[in-house]
Amino acid sequence: MQGKPTLIGQVNLWVRDILALFRKAPGKWMLLGLAHVFFFAMLPSLLGLKFFAFLMLPAFLAVAVGFYRDADIGRDSDLGDLLNEIKPYLPKLLALGAICVVYVLLINLLTADDAVKLNELAKGDPTPEQIVEQSTPILAKLMLLLMPLVLVIWFAPALVAFQQYSVIKAVKSSLAAFIQYLLPLLFTWVAITLIIILGMMLFGVLVGILSAASSSLSEIFMLLLVFACMLLSSALMLAFQYVSNRDIFKMPQPAGTVDLL
């Protein structure tokens, strides 16, 4: 009987599983990352759909976790299969999304003065030192306020969609899991972030070489670098979300599948 892995052992296991999952279908996961970035980062900022995005975020995360689960167990599924699987629990996922919207509205109220300060700072002609000095406390405050939201949506959507938890039970369980597994989750997040930074550095070297060959295209190459890193970050973090859900909550396999392990 195997004992509970050590902190380093758990982090190592999660990182290996995340990278192994990514290597199975990198193109598919980059497309999933593209959908994540487009619908929940780019589109809301362009069209003012931020609250709608937060309403739909739990349902999207449930589908994303489902894609990684199916790849992990060798099941060939498409978007329609997963939508049919989570369809009975869509009202609960939307209720979870409504909680996210209310919390974001609360954050907006608490940071309204800070937004005004940043807007005034942008309109002026500040030095880099002034930008850092004035924006750092505001960004730190925003990150702290967003942390409870991250803790809730990390586990709750999959618990609702695949383990039939109620919304309240899913929220409580998600918060409890973060408290219990704080260090493994934190160190795995740091490890994945370092991998992403390393990937950015390697891509940066390639961009530098291409830019030297064609300086007129350097800005395009740089934009492509940033965009590719955003997709990679999203794909790896979604894989991390699945792996941690799988191991902490013993995510069941979908009906009709056979355990090949």
UniProtKB/TrEMBL annotation:
What InterPro entries is this protein classified in? BPSS1780-like
Alphabetical keyword list: Membrane, Transmembrane, Transmembrane helix
TM spans (from-to): 29-45, 51-68, 89-110, 138-160, 181-214, 220-243
Signal peptide start and end residues: none
Q: Which domain of life is it from?
A: Bacteria
Coiled coil regions, renumbered to chain: none
Q: What is this protein called?
A: Uncharacterized protein
> What is the originating organism of this protein?
Methylobacillus rhizosphaerae
